[in-house]
Design brief:
Helix content is about 30%, strand content about 35%. By secondary structure, the chain is α+β, with helices and mostly antiparallel strands.
Length: about 230
């Protein structure tokens, strides 16, 4: 998050807990990044905030005066929210930034099913490794005994709901121990691990409007695969 005044910029770093799935290392990364920014931009005031952005949190006291608050929400993380959750989250950001505040946000746009499914089932297996790593994380956090080699990655585009659905599929019938409980999986039984909603320009504009924002400007790549948008809180 950044706040701007006449020639005077202050940066607020927010640790993104939960959505990124790296809660255990995010605090150290945040503090390290804040220290690096201070070293590189000697006139920049950096105020790191350790918080879960999906819950309520307050901005720290900002010394001096500032013109407005502008929030930067990069990537296309908003797509990981259900539409109603996205509307609620954007509404909280609008309240946090107050009237006239800004939001710079990335949106993954709707495109051909084939292209989307190829992206989430990439030939190098990067997305599959990311998805399957969840099992290793569960094993570490809960003392589980889940075998990664007994699950496979599966992702497809649900055109009716406008979202990619990522799953882990049990390749055999198996029992796993999780935090003292036994869980039985049938062969081909699926675990839903992530939804990633895609929007058209018009759909996201309506969502932004319902959340208290107005789209002031937007940019897309030449193929209109992705969009970065500047919103202003009403």
């Amino acid at each position: 998050m950044a706040t701007a005044d006449k020639g005077d910029w202050r940066l607020l770093g927010v640790e993104l807990k939960g959505a990124d799935g790296e809660i255990d290392i995010a605090r150290a990364h945040l503090l390290h990044s804040a220290a690096r920014l201070r070293d590189v931009y000697l006139g920049l005031q950096v105020l790191p905030i350790c918080a879960d952005f999906t819950t309520d949190f307050a901005l720290p006291e900002i010394p001096g005066t500032f013109h407005r608050i502008v929030t930067f929400f990069p990537g296309s993380t908003i797509g990981n929210f259900e539409p109603a959750e996205a509307e609620h989250f954007l509404g909280k950001l609008a309240a946090l930034c107050t009237s006239g505040g800004g939001l710079l946000i990335g949106i993954d746009l709707k495109k051909e099913r084939t292209r989307l499914e190829q992206a989430y089932n990439d030939a190098l297996g990067v997305t599959a490794a990311f998805n399957l790593n969840l099992l290793a994380r569960i094993n570490r956090s809960f003392g589980a005994n889940i075998r990664r080699d007994r699950f496979r990655h599966y992702a497809f585009y649900n055109e009716q709901l406008g979202r990619i659905e990522m799953h882990l599929v049990s390749t055999v019938e198996q029992d796993v121990q999780l935090d003292g409980a036994q869980i039985t999986f049938a062969a081909e039984e699926k675990i839903v691990t992530e939804y990633s909603y895609k929007y058209t320009i018009e759909e996201f504009a309506r969502l932004a409007t319902r959340s208290g924002w107005t789209v002031q400007q937007l940019w897309t790549d030449p193929e209109h695969l992705f969009s970065v948008q500047h919103l202003v809180a009403r």
